[in-house]
Write a structure and sequence with these properties.
The chain is mostly helical. 58% of the residues lie in helices and 4% in strands. It has four helices and two strands; from the N terminus they run H-H-E-E-H-H.
Amino acid sequence: MMSELWWPKFIRRPRLRIRRPQFRDVQMPSKWIIFATALGIYYFIVSGGMFTLSYQPEPFFQTSEGPLLLYPSIHRQFLIEGIVGGAIYFMGFLGFYLMYQSTRNIYRPRYSQMMLASGLVLILISFFGCQWLVNMKIFFAGAM
């Protein structure tokens, strides 16, 4: 039916080819943006962000003796507990990252050793800080 229609000779029919976009055409964000986003999500999860959003706990509890920073139960937390716990976990992550970066600088041995030592110190501080925080939480839960 289309071929029988009159079409003037001096007007050329356009030949359009619509190309479907491919996945490789989409620009990916920088690897540092992806890394920072993943790190932010990690910090949000380990600091108890979901608990904070769902229960909306108090920042801390003020007593006559001073602020109470640890919730007197194992199953709940104050907002400050989550922030401090997340910071301790983040410090441990930075220690592992420094240890990884020390392997990338093998041709600068002094710099590599300093990064390795500082990474190990951060990991140990993070580990013992988490242990101290959990022990204090258990102690206060048993005392109350």
